[in-house]
């Protein structure tokens, strides 16, 4: 059977982590050429080598700072130069911060706004403009979170900025649909690791979450697994499979959200 994404080129932002690895792995297995982007450095270089080991010659690493329109535009132009097309953009880049509202540092909040909100706007703008110019359609997937419909105390900066990120995705789905560009969202619960890759978000906030709940790391993982209806540990591959559903166009869908959370009744509407 032909692979679902054979011949397609996909860019994944904020790729060098647990969710990014799961997404890239699924896209590669289904025939896509994958360009993994993240901040420049050894982490991205090592990540690109691991992807190449999965599917030799089918992927590349490319530095990209999502907060810079110039950097994002230059990276996407490089993708078109190398491969003559861009079919899929998965916007996964984001950062977190744990603090109660009455204790929140404004500068830290503004940093989340810059990455989570400005970064989403920049990626949507730069990818959308180029896809429109070329007239070939495309798919954009925005990484949302269960914290949009079901926020957590002490996680207000992340919840609020990701809600703005989610809303930008919904608005883009309205504006880009006439150009056959679909924009959809995925809302995972906690993904701690995928293979050897740990979640960058949980590296930042895991200690605070453990302290707040008086748990060890193993107990925290069990807490998140046991709080969902299916008692499932959510993985990067689960998120990758949800991405695959959207970008393989198995239904005429845009402006939609797939929860990948094992079933969280509080995270409604579903």
Estimated radius of gyration: 18 Å
CATH topology: Rossmann fold
Quick check: average pLDDT?
Answer: 93
Can you count the beta strands? Answer: 9
Report the CATH superfamily. Answer: NAD(P)-binding Rossmann-like Domain
Strand order of the largest sheet: 3-2-1-4-5-6-9
Question: How does the major sheet shape up?
Answer: 7 strands, parallel
Integer count of domains: 1
Query: Low-confidence runs (pLDDT<50, min 5 residues)?
Result: none
Instruction: Report the total helices.
Output: 8
SSE order, as H and E? EHEHEHEHEHEEEHHHE
CATH class: Alpha Beta
Q: What gross morphology would you assign? A: globular
Q: Give the termini separation.
A: 33 Å
CATH architectural name = 3-Layer(aba) Sandwich
Protein structure class: alpha/beta
Task: Explain this structure.
The protein has 270 residues and is α/β, with parallel strands linked by helices. The protein has a single domain (9-199, 235-258), classed as 3-Layer(aba) Sandwich (Rossmann fold), CATH 3.40.50. It has helices at 18-29, 42-54, 69-83, 106-134, 156-176, 200-213, 217-226, 236-247, and strands at 9-13, 33-38, 59-63, 88-91, 138-143, 181-188, 193-194, 197-198, 257-260. Helix 4 (106-134) links the parallel strand 4 and strand 5 (138-143). The chain is globular, with a radius of gyration of 18 Å. The mean pLDDT is 93.
């Amino acid at each position: 059977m032909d692979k679902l994404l054979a011949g397609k080129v996909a860019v994944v932002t904020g790729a060098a982590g647990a969710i990014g690895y799961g997404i890239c792995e699924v896209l590669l297995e289904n025939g896509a050429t994958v360009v993994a982007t993240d901040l420049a450095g050894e982490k991205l270089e090592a990540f690109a080598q691991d992807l190449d080991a999965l599917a030799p010659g089918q992927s590349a690493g490319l530095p990209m700072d999502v907060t810079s329109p110039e950097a994002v535009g230059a990276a996407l132009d490089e993708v078109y130069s190398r491969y003559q097309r861009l079919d899929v953009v998965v916007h996964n880049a984001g950062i977190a911060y744990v603090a109660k509202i009455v204790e929140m540092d404004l500068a830290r909040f503004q940093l989340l706004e810059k990455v989570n909100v400005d970064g989403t706007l920049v990626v949507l703008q730069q990818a959308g403009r180029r896809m429109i110019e070329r007239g070939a359609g495309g798919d954009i997937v925005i990484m949302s979170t269960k914290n949009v419909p079901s926020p957590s105390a002490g996680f207000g900066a992340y919840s609020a900025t990701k809600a703005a990120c989610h809303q930008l995705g919904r608005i883009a789905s309205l504006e880009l649909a006439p150009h056959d560009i679909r924009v959809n969202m995925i809302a995972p619960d906690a993904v701690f690791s995928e293979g050897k890759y740990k979640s960058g978000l949980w590296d930042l906030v895991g200690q605070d979450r453990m302290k707040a709940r008086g748990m060890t790391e193993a107990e925290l993982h069990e807490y998140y697994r046991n709080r969902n209806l299916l008692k499932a540990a959510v993985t990067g591959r689960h998120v990758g499979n949800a991405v695959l559903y959207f970008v393989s166009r198995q239904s005429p869908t845009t402006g939609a959200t797939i929860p990948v959370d094992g079933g969280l009744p509080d995270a409604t509407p579903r």
